[in-house]
Amino acid sequence: MNDLNMMDKVVESLTKLRKKVPLVHCITNYVTINDCANILLSFGASPAMCEAYDEVFDFVKLSSALYINVGTLTKEQEEAAVLASISAKQNNIPVVLDPVACGAIPRKLSVINRIFEVGRVDIIKGNIGEIKFLAGEASKVRGVDSLEGSEGALEACITLANKYNCVIAATGKEDFITDGKRSAIIQNGTEMFTKVTGSGCMLGALCGGTAGSSEDKFIAAVTAVLSMNVAGEGAYEEAKFPGSFKVKLMDHIYCLSEEKLKEEGKIIWK
């Protein structure tokens, strides 16, 4: 795999997003809904936090991508997410699924299975524990948090990518992205992500932005993860505490340039 060529594609993906300003339809959890909306705006996308059952089918048709996060799933959200995924399938709209706490709460898995049965999923973005669980492996989780290390993560991602024929992005100390054939290990990032609520949800939303503006969903996922991590590193250089870090993260996502992404990205391509 030509590393320089792959990085050029990542940079091009960021450029495409800012030119298109994709509309990302988010059905996401209440803890981080505002964070997801604001980071999409800072990234160069347009968020819509539409989750009413009677509206989602038609709203998906207007969108560039659909982001489904099952973190705080109400009954209406559940039905809306399934209906939205059906509309996405019918209207060829890419879907990013964030399987929050799927390894801890059995109901989450049943909803995820319904979405796969009747709708579509282009990217699954979760932490390593969630991805290992979906891949059928034993995983260590604490609520919405993963206690897993990197060992076996890429193999689990490849298994899941082949099972569902979609792109998998697993986050941890290292981040693993694969479509089953091409893989990337991203080594940027900061521990401060674990000290603020919503970093994973915000990343899922960013995946919606890149998926809505790039045909290659593997490159789209790599672009979103790398962008979040490079911005996080820049934010931590200026802000060493959680409250100020979160503010600076938004600033650095907004200021992120293609040049910075290319210069500072630490990716192992496989």
TrEMBL record:
Gene Ontology molecular function terms on file: ATP binding; hydroxyethylthiazole kinase activity; magnesium ion binding
Residues that hold ATP according to the record: K125, T171
Keyword Ribosomal protein: no
Record field: catalytic activity: 5-(2-hydroxyethyl)-4-methylthiazole + ATP = 4-methyl-5-(2-phosphooxyethyl)-thiazole + ADP + H(+)
Keywords recorded for this protein, A-Z: ATP-binding, Kinase, Magnesium, Metal-binding, Nucleotide-binding, Thiamine biosynthesis, Transferase
UniProt-annotated binding residues for substrate: M49, G198
Metal-binding found in the keyword field: yes
Tree of life domain: Bacteria
E.C. no: 2.7.1.50
Listed GO biological process terms: thiamine biosynthetic process; thiamine diphosphate biosynthetic process
Coiled-coil positions: none
Cofactor: Mg(2+)
Pathway per the UniProt entry: Cofactor biosynthesis; thiamine diphosphate biosynthesis; 4-methyl-5-(2-phosphoethyl)-thiazole from 5-(2-hydroxyethyl)-4-methylthiazole: step 1/1
Function as written in the Swiss-Prot or TrEMBL entry: Catalyzes the phosphorylation of the hydroxyl group of 4-methyl-5-beta-hydroxyethylthiazole (THZ).
Family listed: Belongs to the Thz kinase family.
Protein name listed in UniProt: Hydroxyethylthiazole kinase
Name of the gene: thiM
